[in-house]
Amino acid sequence: MGNLLCCIKVDQSTVAVKERFGKFTEVLEPGCHCLPWIFGSQLAGHLSLRLQQLDVRCETKTKDNVFVNVVASVQYRVIIDKASEAYYKLSNPRTQIQAYVFDVIRASVPKLNLDDVFEQKNEIARAVEDELEKAMCAYGYEIVQTLIIDIEPDEHVKRSMNEINAAARMRLATNERAEAEKIIQIKRAEGEAESKYLSGVGIARQRQAIVDGLRESVVGFSSTCGNHCQRCVGHGPSNTVF
Fold first, then answer.
1. How many CB atoms lie within 10 A of CB 59?
2. What SUPFAM superfamilies does this protein map onto (predicted)?
3. pLDDT band at residue 237, thresholds of 50, 70 and 90?
């Protein structure tokens, strides 16, 4: 019915490309439009303005000869002011984006060791995004964001890395355990030394008390004997009958 009335509908978040006798004339935005087909006007196709995402898996080799699979996630959309370029200049944008991602990743990752690839994944993503922006803008596409969402080494390398990490953690745990045992022994020795010191102090005090007691006894005995002798001298000679 719409074709008979020369009217078409363009959905929201979509644009339509209008041609006349096979030549591009204009981009139709969402809404109802008149398309007089009897004068050679026709609808060439539609373009979605929604944000689209493409995940690209790229296998490459690092500087230390480790094969890794790098997964890049590219978010892109059509620039509405360049919808005609997006429709006519590029037949398959996903393939084009994938080719640029491959090119940048395979040029960047071989310059880095495996550990550096994990540490510098944001720099790799930024390099991919910069290259895509320069290339895809001419085709009417905007690169919204590029992320490196996964770096997956070969399974044998991953197992070796896990074993290295496990050994390092075990070594650290052993060192910590030895350090704790050392502290325990030091504290035990300090406790024993303190205990022996206190025991020695107690014994010394005990002996001092014994000596003081003996001294007092001797002094008391001496005083008693001295007094007795003085009394004997004071009474003079005495006759003792046996």
1. 14
2. Band 7/SPFH domain
3. low
